[in-house]
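Key idea: predict the complex, not the pieces.
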Amino acid sequence: MIPEDLRYTAEHEWVAGDGVAGPVRIGITHFAQDALGDIVYVQLPDEGAAVEAGQAIGEVESTKSVSEIYAPLSGTVVARNDKLGDTPEEINADPYGSGWLVEIAPSDPAAVAALLTAAAYRELTES
Amino acid sequence: MTDVTAPAATHLRRSPLHDRHAALGAKFAPFGGWDMPLEYAGGGVIKEHTAVREAVGVFDVSHLGKARVTGPGAAAFVNACLSNDLDRIGGGQAQYTLCCDDATGGVVDDVIAYRFTDEHVFLIPNAANTAEVVRRLKAAAPPSVIVTNEHEEYAILAVQGPRSAAVLTALGLPAGHAYMSFVEADLAGPGVSVVVCRTGYTGEHGYELVVPAEHAVAVWDALFTAGEPEGIRACGLAARDTLRTEMGYPLHGQDLSPEISPVQARLGWAVGWGKPAFWGRAALVAEKAAGPRRALWGLEAVDRGIPRCHMTVYAGDTAVGEVTSGTFSPTRRTGIALALLDTAAGLGEGSTVEVDVRGRHSAMRVVKPPFVTPSVK
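Result:
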C-alpha cells in the first residue's frame, strides 16, 4: 500500500512526479485514509494560490476527526480535484488514484528529491 | 496530515469478546476505561451505520456497567434515589432514568433500570460512572437492600436494525415483546440464559442481550451464524455514536454531566416530578419553576460545516452556547449537533446561528431532534 514510485512526507502525504517535467500531484496515503476513517468533507486551496512548504493548505474531515493538509513543498497550486466535493469517499477508495487532492508547480523542483522515499516512509509507518 | 496515530492503550479493561473483535480487524479506542471496538476492517462508520438503519448490526457494549439491587424494598429504594418514576412500569419492563446529584440536580449518570420484581432491580449505568453510581446507592441503601457491582460478570450485545427480530427468531430467542420490556430466555445451542431487552441507542427496532461473560463468545458466534442471511454486520462504537446523535439521544460526559441538569437537557420526561423524593428533587423543582438558563437544542448545518463537541455557537457576534455533540450524519449527509444554548438569547426552532468551525463561521439551523425519524417500536 506504499507505491514505490512516489515520494512521501512525515505528514502521510504522497507526491507524484519529479517537478521538472510538470507539476507534482499530491494526495494522502493509504495509511492516512485508513487512520481517518470514512472521509466526508475536503477543503482544498484555490487554483493559483501560492503555498509554502509545511503550510496548512486545506482539511480532510472524516466522520470522527479532521486533519490538516500541508503543502509538501513550496510553489503554486495549478489544479485541484473538485470531484472530491461531491465524492470525498474517493480518498478512501483510491487514495493514490482518483482520490488525489491538488497539483502544485514547485518553485524549486529539487525539493521533490528531498522528500521521503517509499522505503523511508514504510519505515516511518511501521515504527 | 496530523494526529493519525492513537495513543497506546494501557491499563484498559477488555471485553470478553476482545479476540473476536481483533480477528475482525477492529480499531480499538478507550471508552470509559475499556478498550472497545471503534470500527471494523471492511466496514467503517458509514457502512456500519447504514447496516443498522437498513438491515441489522451487532454492537459489543460490554463496557456498560451492570449493578444489581436486591432485597425487601429494593425497587422502592431505587425509586427514592433515581429520577424517573419506577412505579410507572411493572416487572419485566425497563426504564430510562437519571442518577442526579442530590445537592445540585446535575446528572451523575443516565441509567437503564430493569425492574424484575419489587425486590430485584438491575441497572445499566455508563462504563465510566458505574463505580460512582454504585457508591452512591450503597451509601444510601437501608440494611435490607444489597447493591452489588457486577460490571465484569456480564457482556451486553446490542442487536439493532429492522432485521434484528428475524435474527433473534432464527436463534429461537423471543423477539415479539414490547418496546422497553425484557424477557429471560435460554439460547438452545450453547445452553445459555440471556436477558433479551427491547432497548437500544440507535433509534431502530432492536434488542440488548445481557449475557453471562463466560458465554459471550458463544452468543456472539450464534448471532453471526443466524444473522448471515439478514446481512448482519459487526458495528463499532463510532457508528453507535452517529446513530444516537441522529436520534438526539444524549451521551453522558458530553450532553449530560454533573454540570448539566435534566431540565437543561430536556429530560423532564425522565423525572418523576410527582414523587415525594429522589436525588436532586429540590434543586430540579426550583430550576423547572424558574426556567433553565440554557437548554439542549439540535443544530443542522446549512452549509458543509461539521460541528464538533466544544465548538462555540454564535448569534451574530454574541456567543450563545456550546456544541455538546456534533458529527456528520450518514443518513442526512450533513453536519448535525446537539448544543446547549443560552435561554437569554431567545433562540428557538427555526432560528439561524453560526458555529465556529476552526475559525470559519458555519451557518446552522436550530431544530428539535430527532434528525432522523425513529423506528424503535
